[in-house]
Design brief:
This protein has 383 residues and is of the alpha/beta class. The chain has two domains: 126 residues, Lyase, Ornithine Decarboxylase, Chain A, domain 1 (Beta Barrel), CATH 2.40.37.10; 249 residues, TIM Barrel. It is built from eleven helices and 16 strands. Strands 1, 10, 11, 12, 13, 14, 15 and 16 form an eight-stranded mixed beta sheet that branches. Strands 2-3-4-5-6-7-8-9 form an eight-stranded parallel barrel, surrounded by four helices. Strand 5, helix 6 and strand 6 form a beta-alpha-beta unit. It is elongated. The two termini are 13 Å apart. The mean pLDDT is 96. The chain binds ligand LLP. Ligand LLP binds next to strand 9, helix 10 and helix 11.
Amino acid sequence: MITEKHLKRFREVRTPFYFYDMDLLERTIEIVKKESARYGFNVHYAIKANANPVILKRIVSLGFGSDCVSGNEILRSLECGFPGHKIAFAGVGKSDNEILTGLKSDIFSFNVESLPELEVIDQLAGKEKKVARVALRINPNVEAFTHKYITTGIEESKFGINMWDLQPIIDFLGSAKNISLTGLHFHIGSQVKRFTPFKALCIKINEIQEWFNNRNIFPGHINVGGGLGIDYENPDVLPDFSGYFSLFDELLELRKGQQVHFELGRSLVGQAGSLITKVLYIKNGLQSDFVIVDAGMTDLIRPALYQAYHKIENLTSINTENSRYNIVGPICESTDSFGKFIELPETQRGDLLAIRSAGAYGEVMISNYNLRDKPGLVYSDKI
Ligand code: LLP
């Protein structure tokens, strides 16, 4: 929650900046820990959502693993205290160097997305005299009902291995000397708001397990990926972690001793961050006036890239009258907009706005297009 004390500090700091509510982060990760522990589930935090070391150190302190999609994310995880044996590494295009980083760090699993990738991992592991632990990332062909840019588990997507491509992979694994098949991995997409797609995923996983068992293959773990959505309309509300984990407990048909792993990103950090920006100008517009703020798509790209909604609040206006505004940034692109026809109290130059639910895929996706400065960082517990 943003309090008077925070606001006082906000007025002194250069805008725009990310504000992290560390109490809310703490509360969120504690709930995730408690609800996942009920079933003995393992959670890897998907560090692509927010790789800020201050945030990572908080998350690692509760014993979570990490989920990485680049060699640098593996290195960042290690620097922040995630042990190698709790690091999962996914991605369709792992470079040789990144694979070597994973091998040297003895990671929990390479989540492998194709036969050629598997062949390279086998070769490199042989050279390093290591045995790589591998989970096959399988495309379950489950519709996630989310934005198409963040749908990953349907047949035409570049991610995962389609069922009809599995047999040659199984044949190769039979002769690969430097690979141990330890699990099966799935991920259907991100910002999945309803539970139905996760239910469909469980049913698919059960079928796919049968396929493997019929070939005498018994993977030790099932990694169901991430994707649990947050409520962008209600930034103070946390996801239903209890319902989410219990669903997997209820529906997954596990084999004896089989472990379940999750890769949650957005749901752990999303509600803990806001982008704070200052109003530069109010400009007449055709249907509604423009509020021109000093943050742009370089600081938070989600609205421009996915037409994403983020709730916007005026933190400083004392006006009781409301107006509708188009809230835009200073970048030379028409997509540089944070929202159209947004109702705010009468707003003026110098007001501070909070763009909420920006803790996930906010700071990590900043760019310096237009040679913009990076936004600042403010943490609630350092005020
Ligand atoms: N596991 C894999 C293999 C993934 O690709 C992702 C996200 C996750 C886990 C974590 O998903 P989450 O729990 O955060 O939904 N930039 C986009 C989101 C891209 C998600 C990419 N993969 C956005 O701003 O909405």
